Amino acid sequence: MNEAATPNDACAGLTLLARNPTDSVTEGFLPAAARLGLAVTLLTDQPDAHRAAYERYACERRGGGPSAGALPGRLEIVPCDVQDVRAVIARTAAQVARVGAPAAVFTNSDHLQVQAALAADYFGLPGKDWRAAFRTKNKAELRRSLAAAGLDTVRSAELAPGDDPAGHGVPYPGVLKPREGVAGEDVFLVADDAELAARRAEIRARRPGAALVLEEYLDGPLHTLETLGDGHVLHPLASFRTDISPPHFIEERLTLLPEPPGPRTGQVLEHLRALGVGFGACHTEYVDQGGRARIIEVNYRAIGDRCDLALAEALDLPLFELILRTHLGEPLPDALAVRRGTRVRMEYVCADRDGTLKAAPEAHVQEADGVRLDYRPLRETGERHPLYRTNRDFLGVLRATGRDEGRIDAAVREFLAAHCWEIVP
What we know:
Blueprint: E1 13-18, H1 23-35, E2 39-44, H2 47-62, E3 75-79, H3 85-99, E4 104-107, H4 113-122, H5 130-137, H6 139-148, E5 156-159, E6 174-178, E7 188-190, H7 193-206, E8 212-216, E9 222-230, E10 234-238, E11 240-245, E12 250-256, H8 265-275, E13 279-289, E14 292-299, H9 307-315, H10 319-327, E15 343-350, E16 355-359, E17 364-368, E18 371-377, E19 384-385, E20 394-402, H11 405-418, E21 422-424
Helix pairs in contact: 3-4, 4-5, 5-6
């Protein structure tokens, strides 16, 4: 690892890789970069979408809206095929020749962790091990790596295009999903060989040539573990309990658990170390089954869907700055000063049909009876969408924060009952 770059140095720069705009970047990492005095070069294959997102964000701030924090004064959006590491390195090299070398290369995208890790290594900058990034993104390789380390792993089979699924050895019910999938897209519970064949054909029609994995279904409480590391120290920050809707595994709500960070934390950390995970943020999903942590997936980035923003607030922790500082080469302290005792519930309002969103509440914040409610729409009224059966069906997210779980639950029920989300054909 190279020497740490010092934030606020003249011309200290951050090269940030992104695909579509996300709240994590817009409201988390970009304002954090501004506070660190970093000039940001954003490489993306969707530059127009990012420009529009940042214009909306700036308007919200000027109008006293719910967003907080400033975008970097020096933010340059550069078109780039960010899924191709060769294009990323070439674009970054051109930027080096023009404005100087970046202090860090970073991404919070599931799709771009390997590319960012390879680019950081190419320019001699701190970053994740690209092998660990690959192991976590590729669900088949994740299973093989855990099995090779002698750790408890989930029975699974990789189904490459053209493979005969006969004799896969995975018990039913099983979960069929894309090998490199994200956000619950094309994830199905299958009960037998016939349903496996039907769902496999359905996914292949949408994703020609995509490799799939079939995994045993894990029954039990679903949790997350949120970690932060610098390559030497690995901190378990917090754990959420997750409620999902059958049979499509769409997240309905996440509840921040009180300390300690979560059940089976030690086992999860053992799995992460075996995968080589320990640099920057990581969001791990697992089932607590019979005293064992059964890993579902490892997302080598910060938790999304506004949970990272809620976590930073609940823990009173400069989470986004700390993540960026690790990529600048700065060591983390041996212990993090975090606030405990704040309870958080994230409730997602989800579309149940396709159509046009005719009516929905606007963004607003309210506080009563010791509970703070922060509602953010995730879809504009007038927009028409199909039913995706993924988190792209989210219409809005409600964050409820307080000290008493009973009051939080009551406040959420009252909010949902008092508002209407109307979808018309």
